[in-house]
Amino acid sequence: MKKIISTPNAPAPIGPYNQAVLSGNTLYTSGQIAIDPKTGALYKGPIKGETTLVMQNLEAVLAAADMTFENVVKATIFVNKMNDFAAINEVYGSYFDDDTAPARETVEVANLPKYVNVEISVIAIK
Protein backbone atom coordinates (compact mmCIF):
# COMPACT_ATOMS: atom_id res chain seq x y z
CA MET A 1 0.00 0.00 0.00
CA LYS A 2 1.26 3.45 -0.83
CA LYS A 3 0.66 6.80 0.81
CA ILE A 4 1.11 10.08 -1.04
CA ILE A 5 3.26 12.59 0.84
CA SER A 6 2.60 16.26 0.20
CA THR A 7 3.61 19.50 1.88
CA PRO A 8 3.16 23.18 1.06
CA ASN A 9 6.75 23.66 2.32
CA ALA A 10 8.16 22.22 -0.91
CA PRO A 11 7.31 23.11 -4.50
CA ALA A 12 4.00 21.77 -5.79
CA PRO A 13 4.31 19.16 -8.56
CA ILE A 14 4.20 20.59 -12.07
CA GLY A 15 3.03 17.39 -13.73
CA PRO A 16 1.50 13.97 -13.10
CA TYR A 17 3.60 13.08 -10.05
CA ASN A 18 3.71 13.66 -6.30
CA GLN A 19 6.37 15.11 -4.04
CA ALA A 20 6.91 11.68 -2.51
CA VAL A 21 5.37 8.26 -2.08
CA LEU A 22 5.63 6.24 1.13
CA SER A 23 5.44 2.48 0.58
CA GLY A 24 5.66 0.57 3.84
CA ASN A 25 8.59 2.17 5.65
CA THR A 26 10.30 3.39 2.47
CA LEU A 27 9.94 6.93 1.13
CA TYR A 28 10.66 7.71 -2.50
CA THR A 29 10.95 11.42 -3.25
CA SER A 30 10.55 13.05 -6.61
CA GLY A 31 13.52 15.06 -7.78
CA GLN A 32 13.64 18.51 -6.25
CA ILE A 33 14.87 21.60 -8.02
CA ALA A 34 15.43 25.13 -6.75
CA ILE A 35 11.89 26.47 -6.76
CA ASP A 36 10.83 28.64 -3.83
CA PRO A 37 7.78 26.85 -2.39
CA LYS A 38 6.25 30.10 -1.10
CA THR A 39 6.43 32.07 -4.35
CA GLY A 40 6.83 29.38 -7.00
CA ALA A 41 9.78 31.37 -8.36
CA LEU A 42 12.75 29.59 -9.84
CA TYR A 43 16.03 30.44 -8.07
CA LYS A 44 18.53 32.24 -10.27
CA GLY A 45 21.85 32.60 -8.54
CA PRO A 46 25.09 30.86 -7.54
CA ILE A 47 25.15 27.05 -7.56
CA LYS A 48 25.63 26.82 -3.78
CA GLY A 49 22.41 28.80 -3.22
CA GLU A 50 20.60 26.68 -5.78
CA THR A 51 21.76 23.47 -4.10
CA THR A 52 20.80 24.81 -0.66
CA LEU A 53 17.23 25.46 -1.83
CA VAL A 54 17.07 21.97 -3.36
CA MET A 55 18.19 20.46 -0.05
CA GLN A 56 15.69 22.60 1.91
CA ASN A 57 12.92 21.36 -0.37
CA LEU A 58 13.99 17.76 0.20
CA GLU A 59 14.14 18.41 3.94
CA ALA A 60 10.53 19.65 3.85
CA VAL A 61 9.35 16.55 1.98
CA LEU A 62 11.19 14.30 4.42
CA ALA A 63 9.64 16.18 7.37
CA ALA A 64 6.17 15.69 5.88
CA ALA A 65 6.83 11.95 6.18
CA ASP A 66 8.22 12.35 9.73
CA MET A 67 11.76 11.71 8.54
CA THR A 68 15.07 13.59 8.37
CA PHE A 69 18.23 13.29 6.31
CA GLU A 70 19.33 10.63 8.83
CA ASN A 71 16.70 8.34 7.28
CA VAL A 72 18.10 8.73 3.75
CA VAL A 73 19.72 5.56 2.38
CA LYS A 74 20.14 6.57 -1.29
CA ALA A 75 20.49 9.84 -3.17
CA THR A 76 20.63 10.65 -6.85
CA ILE A 77 22.12 13.94 -8.03
CA PHE A 78 21.66 15.16 -11.59
CA VAL A 79 23.89 18.05 -12.71
CA ASN A 80 24.10 19.82 -16.03
CA LYS A 81 27.78 20.70 -15.53
CA MET A 82 30.12 18.34 -13.72
CA ASN A 83 32.35 21.37 -13.13
CA ASP A 84 29.77 22.44 -10.49
CA PHE A 85 30.14 19.16 -8.61
CA ALA A 86 32.56 20.38 -5.93
CA ALA A 87 30.26 23.25 -4.91
CA ILE A 88 27.15 21.04 -5.03
CA ASN A 89 28.92 18.33 -3.02
CA GLU A 90 30.00 20.85 -0.37
CA VAL A 91 26.40 21.94 0.24
CA TYR A 92 24.96 18.41 -0.08
CA GLY A 93 27.57 17.05 2.32
CA SER A 94 26.67 19.58 5.00
CA TYR A 95 23.31 17.80 5.42
CA PHE A 96 24.87 14.41 6.22
CA ASP A 97 27.30 12.86 8.69
CA ASP A 98 30.21 11.41 6.71
CA ASP A 99 30.11 8.17 8.72
CA THR A 100 26.44 7.49 7.96
CA ALA A 101 25.98 9.24 4.61
CA PRO A 102 23.72 7.47 2.11
CA ALA A 103 24.74 5.67 -1.05
CA ARG A 104 24.73 8.06 -3.99
CA GLU A 105 25.30 8.53 -7.67
CA THR A 106 25.91 11.77 -9.52
CA VAL A 107 25.06 11.97 -13.21
CA GLU A 108 25.80 14.74 -15.67
CA VAL A 109 22.89 15.34 -18.05
CA ALA A 110 22.31 17.63 -21.03
CA ASN A 111 19.29 19.41 -19.52
CA LEU A 112 17.10 19.40 -16.43
CA PRO A 113 13.53 20.66 -15.87
CA LYS A 114 13.30 24.43 -16.26
CA TYR A 115 16.98 24.31 -17.28
CA VAL A 116 18.18 24.27 -13.66
CA ASN A 117 21.73 23.24 -12.78
CA VAL A 118 20.97 20.54 -10.19
CA GLU A 119 18.15 18.14 -9.26
CA ILE A 120 18.28 15.73 -6.33
CA SER A 121 16.03 12.87 -5.24
CA VAL A 122 16.35 10.54 -2.25
CA ILE A 123 15.09 7.27 -0.87
CA ALA A 124 14.61 7.13 2.90
CA ILE A 125 13.62 4.39 5.35
CA LYS A 126 11.99 4.73 8.78
UniProtKB/TrEMBL annotation:
<dbReference type="InterPro" id="IPR035959">
    <property type="entry name" value="RutC-like_sf"/>
</dbReference>
<dbReference type="Pfam" id="PF01042">
    <property type="entry name" value="Ribonuc_L-PSP"/>
</dbReference>
<dbReference type="InterPro" id="IPR006056">
    <property type="entry name" value="RidA"/>
</dbReference>
<comment type="similarity">
    <text>Belongs to the RutC family.</text>
</comment>
<dbReference type="GO" id="GO:0005829">
    <property type="term" value="C:cytosol"/>
</dbReference>
<protein>
    <submittedName>
        <fullName>2-iminobutanoate/2-iminopropanoate deaminase</fullName>
    </submittedName>
</protein>
<dbReference type="GO" id="GO:0019239">
    <property type="term" value="F:deaminase activity"/>
</dbReference>
<dbReference type="InterPro" id="IPR006175">
    <property type="entry name" value="YjgF/YER057c/UK114"/>
</dbReference>
